[in-house]
Amino acid sequence: MRVSASKPTMHRTSLICAFLALFLAVPFAQAQNDEGPIAPPPKFEVKRIPSVPHPGPPPIPVEELIRRFSANEDAAKKVYDTYNLLQTVRVEELETGNGKFTVTGELYTKPDGTRFWRVLKPPVSTLKEIPYSFEDVRTMMSLPLFFLTSNEIPYYDFLYAGQQQLDELNTYVFQVKPKQPVRGRRFFQGVIFVDDQDIAIVESFGKFVPEGESEAGETKLPFTLFETFREHFQDKYWLPTYTSSDDYVKDPDGNDVHLRLVIRSTDFKLNTPLAPTAAAPPSN
């Protein structure tokens, strides 16, 4: 039975941080979450991964791996767009304040085919150091959902970086970087982990570039690096269900406040049937 990728252990996070140190040229604070699915991480010996890796060739040619995982991304995105789902967005103050901002909404498909996010429960805030409103959080929801579909592949350069064990999954690791900026678009820059059996992306870690205001002139996002985990649906699709980010922002007095963002997706329900035998995945 295939298992979903879960939150990283300290060893995994250390490897990722070392791997991205020069590639992304931005700081990263290790993210954990009180609702995460794993116990406190054990201590491991950290093995450094160079910023420019020189691994041996994978058992499948790199070009074939990219072709196959992008084809699986095409299928995953098509399936994802047929689901309505609940999303809970939480912003936490860490170290000081200990406040939280939480809002729950539904991502659904309108009759005209467009996707829309609507609030189901009024936002609740106990934040003390940094004030956040629903409109601030709505800006965070504008993050592009990262699917490396076949029509996106030409915009990126890929560097194979070896293999990595993620819990019970063995994965191929790729550095991903946009070839050049395109006006009005954000691109992913970071690392993807591709399951070696399904040849599908099961985790991504990185940022969206260019960093700054979106084309709608919205406020710059306070978070930089995003780690997204996927779960196995219908025994063939890996869909994103959990995104987290840690960062520091300035309070009104100029002090650094450590914040964590968590976006969790649950209660997937089919909006339109894919096939007579298709069944919705269980709620998380």
Structure description:
The chain is mostly beta strands. The protein has one domain (10-270). It has a ten-stranded antiparallel sheet, with helices on both faces. It is globular and about 50 Å long. A hairpin with a 5-residue loop joins strand 9 (237-250) and strand 10 (256-270). Helices cover 14% and strands 38% of the residues.
Spell out the key features of this protein.
single chain, 284 residues, mainly beta, 10-stranded antiparallel beta sheet, 38% strand
In short:
The chain is mainly beta and 284 residues long. It is built from three helices and ten strands; from the N terminus they run H-H-E-E-E-H-E-E-E-E-E-E-E.
Question: Strand sequence of the main sheet, in spatial order?
Answer: 3-2-1-10-9-8-7-6-5-4
Which runs of at least 5 residues are low in confidence (pLDDT < 50)? 8-15, 21-49, 213-219, 273-280
- Main beta sheet strand tally, sense and closure: 10 strands, antiparallel
Distance between the termini: 17 Å
Task: Summarize model confidence as the mean pLDDT.
Answer: 77
Cα radius of gyration in angstroms: 19 Å
> Portion of residues in helices?
10-25%
Overall 3D shape: globular
What is the element string, with H for helices and E for strands?
Answer: HHEEEHEEEEEEE
Specify the structural class. mainly beta
What topology emerges from the helices and strands here?
Blueprint: H1 10-24, H2 62-80, E1 83-94, E2 100-109, E3 115-125, H3 134-140, E4 156-166, E5 169-178, E6 187-195, E7 201-209, E8 226-233, E9 237-250, E10 256-270
Antiparallel strand pairs: 1-2, 1-10, 2-3, 4-5, 5-6, 6-7, 7-8, 8-9, 9-10
